[in-house]
Amino acid sequence: MSKRILIVDDAVFMRMKLKDILEKNGYEVVAEAQNGAEAIEKYKSENPDLVTMDITMPELDGVSALREIKKINPNAKVIMCSAMGQQSMVMEAIQAGAVDFIVKPFETDRVIKSLEKASL
Ligand SMILES: [Mg+2]
Fold it and tell me: Full-prediction pTM beyond 0.85?
């Protein structure tokens, strides 16, 4: 069974890029969300194995969405997607229970390593 992934990012291009990497490596992208609020809704409806979560988004940011998702499922596996210079947000996310983080631009090897680590 391939792992079911929810991709969260406000940038269409980033979602496309990540989806491409994941699907080429045997993961199933079951849903996409473009802000934190949508991420929570999709998490509830799809119950994915793993979430990739952008940090900076309108409506609700990624760290807040992570906290809400962890309330729904304390074992939820969320990987943060950060831009350069977001170290403090990443630290906050790790403390809030994110399993790992990947830095944009996405590199296939790094993305897949992170997902494999998160799936353990
Ligand atoms: Mg963003």
Answer: yes
